[in-house]
Specification:
Two copies of one chain form a homodimer. By secondary structure, the first copy, chain A, is mainly beta. The first copy, chain A, has two domains: 112 residues, Hotdog Thioesterase (Thiol Ester Dehydrase, Chain A, Roll), CATH 3.10.129; 137 residues, Acyl-CoA thioesterase, double hotdog domain (Porin, Beta Barrel), CATH 2.40.160.210. Chain A has four helices and 17 strands. In chain A, the strands form two sheets. In chain A, strands 1, 2, 5, 6, 7, 8, 10, 11, 12, 13, 14, 15, 16 and 17 form a 14-stranded antiparallel β-sheet that branches. A two-stranded antiparallel sheet of chain A has the order 3-4. Strand 15 of chain A pairs antiparallel with strand 9 of chain B, so a sheet runs across the interface.
Chain lengths: 278, 278
């Protein structure tokens, strides 16, 4: 029953978890969170979500795909040992709802709920009225690997993925944000590692906060993030778009769409985050 | 410290909870879920969310307002006794993250996470680029109180609120859905009961499912619903808009916006629901 993580790529190694104990309804996993996913005041939220997503997957291997996962970030994750506790809330016929908690040194960092199932067993009908984002061609986008060394030092996260930002919404990098509250780009993992449901959980929180495009650089701590995985991604590049439409009360929502190479909307996510200070 | 519910209106009576026990971090409340909120296969999800929201409010009265609440619906709520257990996950300076569970006769029905705080202490800046929905004037909309008696019998919920549906997206009621996947209308509680954060939790799941407007009537069970309360609603009518952009894999997302009488976007919610059968 145990589904071993593929350790062949950095993403898989860094999100791997090992089972420490298990009862009928609960499991505990150990993780060693990698420093390479640091950005701003802590480890990237998408990286942490993918790691939790893997622990949940290994808790219920017969239900390998998240349909929905909601994470509340209560403290910054840091590099080093972490414990992920999972618990089955309700086991249904075609899906299972679970709770998870990520803690470090006895401090809760993330508490989450999720429903997992098997996308391969779901109806194949797709009726999407949303349109893929208009985005500059890949070769016209800015690779984050070309970012200034200073930026890459405070955000080593950028070297963990191949991210090409659409220049239409990358003016903030040179002090000229568009003001529209949009950031989008092409995304894939390096090492030929194709997308799956776990890398989608990374993708929904991998781009810089949309507040950069509003002229408000700085760390925007996530309060809550819910991702709906709406299909299994096809091989190839993903297009990821973040947008905000409501900055209010010291917070903003960030809506995320992830489209695969076949123009399927494979993930939708929304987070509520605090505005950067200053 | 205890904040007693106002029992003057039906909504307040029906969502009232009474504290059964409390420790430093946990509390248990008893509720008597009212049959008037029935719709389709169970009690309305927004009604249940508002009841949980009240239990959380009474758990942390110094943090009276939900910023975000995420509910996973694992079984249909039914009229009668219910137990709501709440637990503080992390108490911060300006906000608190909690977990809640609603059970009936030992069966879990809803598991939820939430972050509560105090909107009155948050920055007052609002920068909303979203536009209020274009909606027919109130007097041109269809009051659900005028619905056929047969419909009102299977959905007594409709008599608990004053809901006026925009005719542009109400054609499904006469067999002519628009096909756009939108349902919207004017909303308020009766008895002069003005909106507050709890009635917003009702409002985000009070309208018929958008699948009606796609020509797919029937009950659409919610898998997950997250509501962000983005401001305290002003007195007067609310405008509520639901839309879906992605029907796929046997499920659909339903995005909800709630605008108050001052054109402020006071709540944003999204749910993942299963398509009606057949």
């Amino acid at each position: 029953m145990s589904s071993e993580p593929q350790l062949s790529t950095e993403f898989d190694r860094d999100t791997s978890v090992s089972e420490v104990s298990r009862t009928e309804d609960e499991a505990v996993f150990a993780a060693d969170l990698a420093p390479g996913w640091q950005v701003g005041g802590g480890l990237n939220g998408g990286y942490l979500l993918a790691t939790i997503g893997r622990a949940l997957q290994q808790t219920v291997p017969k239900h390998p795909h998240p349909y929905s996962i909601s994470a509340y970030y209560v403290g910054p994750g840091v590099a080093g040992e972490a414990t992920i506790s999972t618990r089955v809330v309700r086991l249904g016929g075609s899906s299972v709802t679970l709770a998870a908690e990520l803690a470090q040194q006895g401090q809760r960092k993330i508490t989450a709920l999720a429903t997992y199932g098997d996308h391969d067993t779901m109806p194949s009908e797709v009726r999407t009225t949303a349109q893929p984002p208009e985005m500059a061609p890949l070769e016209q986008c800015f690779p984050t690997s070309a970012a200034p060394e200073e930026l890459r030092r405070i955000a080593p996260l950028m070297e963990r993925m191949d991210l090409r930002l659409d220049p239409a919404y990358a003016g903030w990098a040179v002090g000229a944000p568009s003001g529209e509250g949009i950031i989008q780009g092409w995304f894939r993992l390096p090492e030929g590692r194709e997308s799956d449901v776990l890398s989608l959980l990374l993708a929904v929180d991998a781009l810089p906060p949309v507040t950069f495009d509003l002229g408000r650089p700085g760390w925007a701590p996530t309060v809550e993030l819910t991702a709906h995985v709406r299909g299994l991604p096809a091989p190839g590049w993903l297009r990821v778009r973040h947008a905000t439409r409501n900055v209010a009360g010291g917070m903003f929502e960030e809506d995320c769409e992830v489209w695969d190479s076949t123009d399927r909307l494979v993930a939708q996510a929304r987070q509520l985050a605090r505005l950067p200070r200053g």
